[in-house]
Amino acid sequence: MVSSFRRIRVINFEIESVCPWSGARAGRLITAHGVIETPVFMPVGTNATIKALTWEQVDLCGAQIVLSNSYHLYLRPGHKLVESHGGLHQFAACHLPILTDSGGFQIFSLDELRRITEDGVYFKDHLSGQEHFIGPEKSMEVQNSLGADIIMAFDECVKNPATYEEARQAADRTHRWLERCVARHARSADQALFGIVQGSTYEELRTQSAQIVTSFDLPGFAIGGVAVGENRQAIEHMVAYTAPLLPKTKPRYLMGVGTPWDIAYAIRCGIDMFDCVLPTRLARHGAAFTSAGRIALKGARFTTDPEPLEPGCSCYTCQHHSRAYLHHLIRLKEMTAASLLSIHNIFYLVRQAALARQAILEGRFRQYFEDAVTLCSQPA
Fold first, then answer.
1. In which domain, by residue range, is 157 found?
2. Is 190 a catalytic site residue?
């Protein structure tokens, strides 16, 4: 058994600059495992690893913090096993700050495989079919054992379109579960618990949820239930509407979005943190982000293309390999293709957030955003 976790202070958040035109913020999120410069994109390492990459390669992408999934880690290998190895940082040999989600979104996406009660959710393992139960208390137990720097409250996320009553009931239950999470959180001195605002696409419910969730004196807050079936206009409206309802002095996290446009728009609205599986998922399907839009390297037009994915990009992939070589790897289903494209895609989004931060600090974010509007309107 590895010795018990060392006691550390919970995160601190310092705002360095705010754009007067938009409210976009540049800050520093201080954790026990490093200082995170915000706004920041967080790559998703579902099973305590970023798919197809080593931690050294993740470093080369410029990542400052990664996200892992407590639902998957609870099922395999089990949170108690991870705890016996000293928590996620030691188990995975990851030196970066880590955020774990509560498992709520994954459970609620199971549809027929789960049953919601006031106590929590009964669900079946999506692989083995074995039944499990997770409620607020169990979610806190799992995340306390995993030992991430930032953990998330257990919430109920409804898919859109949702009726007003469906969204209201889910938000109300999320609020009651948050109170139970706060009461059960056993490591408040060294793990920052974030509350989550729900309410689907209804302004009234978002307002009520923000008021209730932020009444808890938590280190940070998140906007949940976004990009779960609604159209682009609805997503943008809810982000723009909800972000100002969150405390100005606490970090704001928009959960589960991460296209280049999502990031630019979220930062404009005053969001500090965002995550998405899209960079690695696209990589496994042979696609890459570029300033000219998303490109699919399987296309025959790349067979002899000597250019890098993104001219001028300083990521490892663009510095060493051509589109023709990547096309070759993809056509032959070589695993290296997923690694090289993941490096570029993560680097691209991490760098986009870093460039936005620099623009905020230098007082030119409005021009940055207007340029982003032009770039992101390119055909995908």
1. 12-276
2. no
Name the catalytic one among 155, 262, 272, 275.
Answer: 275
Rounded Cα gap, residues 119 and 68, in angstroms: 24
Q: Higher pLDDT residue, 111 or 101?
A: 101
Domain count within the chain: 1
Residue 2 has pLDDT above 60, yes or no: no
Rounded Cα–Cα distance for residues 263 and 268 (Å): 9
CATH of the domain at 245: 3.20.20.105
Q: Does some domain include residue 148?
A: yes
Establish if 312 belongs to a structural domain: no
**In the chain, what is the greatest distance between 2 CA atoms, to the nearest angstrom?**
60
pTM value is: 0.95
149 is catalytic: no
Catalytic residue among 59, 101, 119, 190: 101
- Decide: helix, strand or coil at residue 311: coil
Backbone angles phi, psi at 366, to 5 degrees: -60, -45
112 falls within a domain: yes
Q: Given this model, what pLDDT does residue 377 score?
A: 63
